[in-house]
Amino acid sequence: MDSLSQLALGAAVTVAVMNRRVPVWQAALAGAVAGTLPDLDVFVDHGDAIRNMTLHRTESHALLILTLLAPLAGWLVAGVTRSRQHWRSWCLALWLALITHPLLDLTTVYGTQLGLPITDYPFAIGSMFIVDPLYTLPLLVALGVALWRRDAAGVRWTRLGLLISTLYLGWSMVIQGVATQQIKQQLAQQPIVPQRLLVTPTAFNTLVWRTVIITPDRYGEAYWSLFSPQRPLQITWHDRQMALLTPFKGQWHAERVVWFSHGFYALRQQGGNTLISDLRMGEAPDYTFTFNLGRPEAPAAAPQREPAARPSLQRAWHQFRQRL
Asked: Quick one: CA dihedral 81, 84, 85, 90, positive or negative?
């Protein structure tokens, strides 16, 4: 999720756990820092764009590693705030602020390697868009009230904000399941046997859902709306151009995108170069993560990420209304 959501979640969790054992602003500040800390890995340059994408949300998001760091963080914060008598509460609060970060990231489609060092599998539920105001606003409002009141009622507000935001996460998973079932039923009535099927929300909401349908040679994109669930899917098909991958078989960068995207990828040529796109984020023809692998006879040693065009707000709003 976005940095503001992670900051608000970490602060709210810590205020709720510390329960006025320390000043509310101290708990909120410590939680905000802990909630933001795992994403500092974005400032690490691993040498090329594909490594940077696939090595984000790795060790800094691993549940076991964060659990081992929590007692140290609790001890340090208890010392800085001169509240050693509450160091156990600090440990619990900061542990929750740290691990809820990757657990919230898990709900997005990107992929979070929270099982390290046991497994590097990039887990993803894909029920939340990376930015969703309906998740973040309850946390921000609750924190604002808690910092303003600085009393027991303010702490109860943070717990209410956490409850509402968590229920919204649950709602996103339920409606994702409904959308997936409806889409599968429609596909079963057509001569389409998908190898893979992805259902994930469109920007800033959980009302309109985008589906990606993978077959051996092509992929389709369609949209499902909660307000018109029985409307026939209008699938737009695209050639995956799988033959372009053959010269790059065994090449680390290409294989890495294939693995990290869970098979949701496509290729195309541009000026003699081969481009590979992760189809899970963005939409045709502009995907958030598209990389230039170079030429078949001269693969790029450090593939670069191709810039993705973003639609205007007017166009995005028009598309959303149509799909809704």
From this structure: positive
